[in-house]
Specification:
Length: about 350
Amino acid sequence: MTGTFVILSLPFFSLKACLALLPVLVFLGILVLLDSYKLVPLHRILQTIGIGIVCALCAYLLNSVGFRVFAPQGDAYMNYGVPLLEEILKGSYIVYLVRKQRIGFAVDAAIIGFAIGTGFALQENLVYLSLLPDATLLTWIIRGFGTAIMHGSTTAFFAILACNVAERREGRGPWIILPGLVLAFLVHSFYNQAVLSPVFMTVLIAATVPVLLTLVFSWSENSLRQWLGEGFDRDVELLRMISTGTFLQTRAGKFLLSLTKAFPPATVADMLCALRIRVELALRVKGDLLKREAGFPVVPDQGTLARLRELKYLEKSIGPTGRLAMSPLFPKGSRDAWQLERLGYR
């Protein structure tokens, strides 16, 4: 009799596990497929999911302490303390990436953010599967289509807003995370308070999040396409001027020449060489993105790797003071560092 019960319960457990774990993975897969430019490679997505799992483990430990410390205010901690702690933990990796300028557009921000939330939700639901073996199928439908998607979407919008604010405000200070953190906290807190029925909240999340993220994807890809067109033309023209020597007659060229008052002529010459290589590499990145959109494979070539090595050598020769002095040559708020990151510069 016991053996029969185990045999019958295994498919039931498998169904519960699928309901709890698969929806968020499927949704992440859809986001990846929507990305025409394939900005986030598979290995990075898997790495980010792993980081989300680590965040969930940390949240589990910290919340265990928090519920003991704030036992008299258990409901308040669940409604406000848990959302704040968990969104800070999930958003910490986003902050790191934004500060390192490793996120360029809302598309990759959404994918990376949702991947963190996916890892977090997978780990959290695995814990609940072990703690609540007798829970009904409805519980796992709510956790899979509601709670898990909520975790992914709040971190995705956290990342989108952080990326957008950093680009518009031309900075990487800690204040850039506030809009995203506030939005993620409010949504998470509202979900935890169960003002609406769990079933209604699940339906609401499952219906609205895909639409919102699809709109963000559409807007971001249009923005990326516009940036590619304008940036490609600008870089080609700049490279032409550097090659023909007419660059030194422009305002930017005259500024570079003025640096000879503070730096040796050889260092200024290295600055010009470094600028040229950066433009060449920027064109390579834009060309790669256009190839990806058209469905062509992109393979690293030795020429690009050689230019990256030369750029590192030149920047080391110029020194930190020289790099700071030539920083006005690069447009503020540009995705210059992100482009180099795409080529494995860091």
